[in-house]
Structure formats: C-alpha cells, structure tokens
Predict the structure.
Amino acid sequence: MTEIRAEIPYAQEADAQFSDYVALLKPRVMSLVVFTALVGLLVAPGSLHPIEGLAAIIFIALGAGASGALNMWWDADIDRVMRRTARRPIPAGRVAPQEAMALGLALSGFAVIMLWLATNALAAGLLAFTIFFYAVIYSMWLKRATPQNIVIGGAAGAFPPMIGWAAMTGSISLEACLMFGLIFMWTPPHFWALALFMKSDYHNANVPMLTVTHGRRATRAHILVYTAALMPVALVAGVTSIGGPVYLALALGLNLMFLYGAGTIWRRDEAQAEADGYATEKRVFRFSLSYLFLHFGAFLAEASLSWWPAYADFATRFKLLEVF
Amino acid sequence: MAIAREHDLHKRRSSRNLGLAAVLVAFIVLIFGLTIAKVQGGAALQAFDHSYRPSLDPDHVRFQHR
C-alpha cells in the first residue's frame, strides 16, 4: 500500500484559517451525506425525538468529514498534481499532513461514539465501517490499485441513508439496501463522466481511472452499462414502502433521461467530444447530480404525502414489496 | 500598559480561535438538548453502580411477583 504513495516534503506556506479545517472535511461531499442520511432517517418507520434526529445527522456528517480529512492526508501527493485538487489545504501548504490525520482520527472516534450515545450501536457500527471503507479500503488501497476503484469505493458514499435508517429503526431492511444500491450504482457513471472531461488530471497523477487503463472507448461503454443497471434498482425502490406513484413516475422519467444521456456519450467518439469541448459529457455529469437529488427528494415527497389518507390509500396499490 | 502584548500571531489565528469557540458552544448546546430529549423520552435515570441492584432488574421484579 505505502510503496505507491510518494512522500513529498511539506513546507508551511501560511497560517491555517478555520475555513481550511472546514475544507479538510469536504463540505460539498458532506452536504450530499447530510441530505441522503436525512432522507434515510425521515422515510424510516418509527419515531425519534427531533433533537436526537438532529444529533444523528450532525454526527453522521462529522464522520463523513473525518473520512474526508483522512483521505486528504493520504492523497496529498496526488492532490498536488491534479489541477482540481491542488488548492486543497495540504497541497497549498496551509495545513500540515499530520494535522489533517490527527483531525481525521479524532473526529472519527468522536463521531462514532457520539452517534452510538445519541441513537444506537448499529448506526454507530455502520458509520465506523463507512469511515474505514473510505479511508482504508478506497483511499489507501483501491484508488491507486485498480480501475474498479470507483465501483467498489462508491459503497462508502452509499452508506449514509442506510445509517440514517438504522439510527431511526435500529435495523436494516430492504428499503435501506435499495437506497444504498441507488447511490452505489449511480457513482460509477457519475465519476466516469467526470473522468472523461478531466482526463489529464487522473493521467498526470497516475490514478488508474478507467479512462487511463482501458481507454476512453471502454469508459463510454461502461457508463452505458452501469446506467442501464442502475435503472432496475431505482424502479424497484418505487414498489417498496418508501416508494409510491410520485416516486415511480419521477424515477421512470429520470432514468430514461440518464439512459439517453449515457447512450449519447457511448455513441460519440473522441473527435466529436474534443470538437464541442465535452459538452455532452459535462451535461450528463451535471444531470447525474440532479438525478440523485431528485430521487431522494421523491422519497421524501412520498413520506410527506403519506400523511394525507386519500393519497396513502392510493399509494398502497403500488407498494408491492412492502415488508413492514 | 496592556498586560499581554497583541502579537500579529493573535490576529492571524483569530478566525481559528473564534471558529473553535463557536463549535464548542454549539456542541454544549447539542449535548444539553440531547440530555433533555433522552430524559423526556424515558431513558433510564438509574443504572447498576458496581453492585447488583435487584430493584432495577425487571426480570427479578417479575420473578418475585409470580
């Protein structure tokens, strides 16, 4: 593991500000974690005091932030090379790598213990596993070892709604697994679309992204296959207790649009993409963000609409896989 | 004369110190709220303290009343 990571001497360029420590926690990733974990918690059956729910979300977000800090500590050498990440606090010389590691480890332990105290051991155990998975399995091992790094590593980002569900119910169910599956299957096409137009970054950093190891033609084919495989996961979630007619209608439309975008990416060659500055790839990448947001928004809409008895009666007809 | 001389370092680190203070205050508020929520929710206010207390054991109480 360690031999492939280049040790680069660190020189402090400036004093770290509070915002640098916040940046170490990857706030943009954290916002996605907060949203999906909140949906997982709100659509789960059962009840939790609002303050316990708020605490659960804060500690899940803190755990995700801790794994982000550990990732930045470990990946400081490649962050320095990539244009997209060169301004992060460690490569920019504002935070020492050891400081980021200490912050990551301390926050990890703190977030897991506090989530346990606020909710239950299962949620805390899942959070601990997520941090371990992202920091050790993905960052230290898979990211530099295999072009499937994004596929397996995507699991780390898929856990938050399951942790939210576990915080509320103390258990894991089919619905929690489907929310996990939705993010897990969405991650590869989302990141490979990014890799297509950020090509030089990963190549310069020697990160074995699919675009670098198998070429861009194969990456385009992979995006199409994974987008097609994502569709059944998204639709099956619609016939469980967290789904319903609103979700199903939206999911059907969004998946057809994503599939159409992936198909367009697959049909294009490099000359066409270069000619229009990767317009289609960038459009599909941006769409994929809305895709995930709208799916989880629809879960939330179904949970809210179920308070309306007439709608709840109607929606029951769609919930073929209701297990509780 | 001021007791402590204001150094440039204090200015450079002020955002860090203020940020940390805000985080600590938020944490105290959250823990206080969580405590109130747990107590209101009926969480156990007593527990075993080094020695076994039959009065806190539901199984023991049920056995005695059988």
User: Anything to note?
Assistant: The domain at 16-171 of chain A is CATH 1.10.357.140 (Tetracycline Repressor; domain 2).
